[in-house]
Known about the structure:
Pfam families: Response_reg, Trans_reg_C. The protein has about 220 residues and is an alpha/beta fold. The protein has 2 domains: about 1-120, 3-Layer(aba) Sandwich (Rossmann fold); about 145-215, Arc Repressor Mutant, subunit A (Orthogonal Bundle). About 40% of the residues lie in helices and about 20% in strands. The chain has helices spanning about 10-20, 35-40, 60-70, 85-90, 105-120, 150-165, 170-180, 190-200; strands at about 1-5, 25-30, 45-50, 75-80, 95-100, 125-130, 130-135, 140-145, 145-150, 170, 205-210, 215.
Amino acid sequence: MQVLLIEDDVSLAKGLQTSLKNEGFIVNHLSEGKQAINSIASSEPDIVVLDLGLPDMDGNEVLKQIRRRNAELPVLILTARNSIQDKVAGLDSGADDYLAKPFEMDELLARLRVLERRLSSLKHADLTVGNVSIDTRAQQVKVNGENVDFFRREYMLLKMLMENVGRVQTRDSMESKLYSWGEEIASNAIEVHIHHLRKKLPENFITTVRGVGYTIKTQ
């Protein structure tokens, strides 16, 4: 699950990135609203965590511009503004949730998990291709009717491929979903993940498109 953190407090942002990554989230960080709007337009994250007190524009305006492009992208406001009026304004602008600073990390994680489950329900609660199925709400994979365990990045990659059956996913697109910006990535990281996936999946379930990427063909 890829999170875009829009927060101008660098120290807080670094702490949040570390904590969220430890919980399995892929976290990218921007400190300005205009940067965030442009970033979301070119590569949409799964969830946005948005501060309101940004240096270049008010967070509520950022949220309104996000909503003009996408009505369903989950947005959690994380801000020091904690009055009832501020909360009402944020929710009325289109936020899915509102958490005031200071906050407990456990509460933020719980709220993100709620948004993650809601996102899975809005998209595909169940994905099935041939003898492989994913319950995205429980994040459980079955192969030939049996539960199979996958590491988080393996699961994310398989889900991405199964959501795009018949469409080739390039190496760059897969890396962008599995890794944070600036994170050191081994040159063969995607190939290694695919190798591990293939060991757990039916033979020829994932097809290599040489020089382009990988796909799952319609079964």
